[in-house]
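Notes to self after the call with IL:
- keep both proteins in one doc
- input above output, always
- annotate only the second one for now

Protein 1:
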Amino acid sequence: MIVEVQININGSKAAIWATITDIENASKIISGIENIEILEKPAHGLNGLKWRETRMLFGKPATADKWITDASENEFYKTRAESDGFIFLSTMSITDSKHGFTLTSVHDSQPQTLVTKLMSIPMSLFFKGVAKKALMQDLNDIKSAVEQQ
């Protein structure tokens, strides 16, 4: 299941990049994140940065270990997480737009077992809407943080 959302932000590309890559302080910027614990920091750049992220999902805390698999400064970064028989791949990217920049968030949930593949069929309709709403809130929070700088 792939979910994509985007938002226009009036700010510099550098300010947007600084905000979306401040993983350590993401819980102060993004209202949907309850807690961040940095697990591994690379010597240089973002590739290999690993953290434990806790969000509230359906009234319960949900925690996943995420790590950056690829990044290009001021352009994009990609993350991976694995949990409960799924692989979750995400990309955050910044592109030029008429009114500043567009921040795009793409999430791909890939079931890996027979059980998760069967579960994902009926649940994808419901969860896609929930995921889209949550991701859009994340982008609105990022937009607010950047535009208030």
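Protein 2 (the one to annotate):
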Amino acid sequence: MPNSKNIELLAELKDKLSRAKAVYFTDYLGLDVSSITDLRSQFFNADVEYTVAKNTLLKIAAKENNIEGIDEFLTGPTAIAISYDDPSSPAKVIMAFSKEHNKPNVKGILFEGNVLSGDEFQRIANLPSKPELLSQLVSMFQSPLTKLVGTLSAPMMNTVNVLNNLKEQKSE
């Protein structure tokens, strides 16, 4: 018979999985308390929720959300990094943090409904962020407009230059 605490945790996990854009399943063993506190702080600053979860509750919550294929990631201690906005932001935090600590290891990823193995982590971590993509898009739109303005203003500039040259020749 499940206890009330597990029932509450299951309801929370089910809700989190249903709203998440990305869930990163990590192995956090080997990190001391201060390192985990630092990691949680970095996740908090990136609007990512990082929590330790029971594998059995994760399996049940995934099944109730019709998510299949994550059972292989749910062995040993598991912590999940959940992003509700930018699905690549947890990868960037994990990558930056693991440069110093070599942890946490990414076991697998639930990325916008697709289950990916931990091997895909590097590829996702190197994706540009949403603001970077938006700035690239703006510059792509801006470039043709800048060229158009230059092309349209060139004949007027040439006409002005010709008139100035004629004026200088007449005044000499």
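Annotation: Strands lie at 22-27, 48-52, 79-83, 105-111, 114-117. The chain is about 60% helix and 15% strand.
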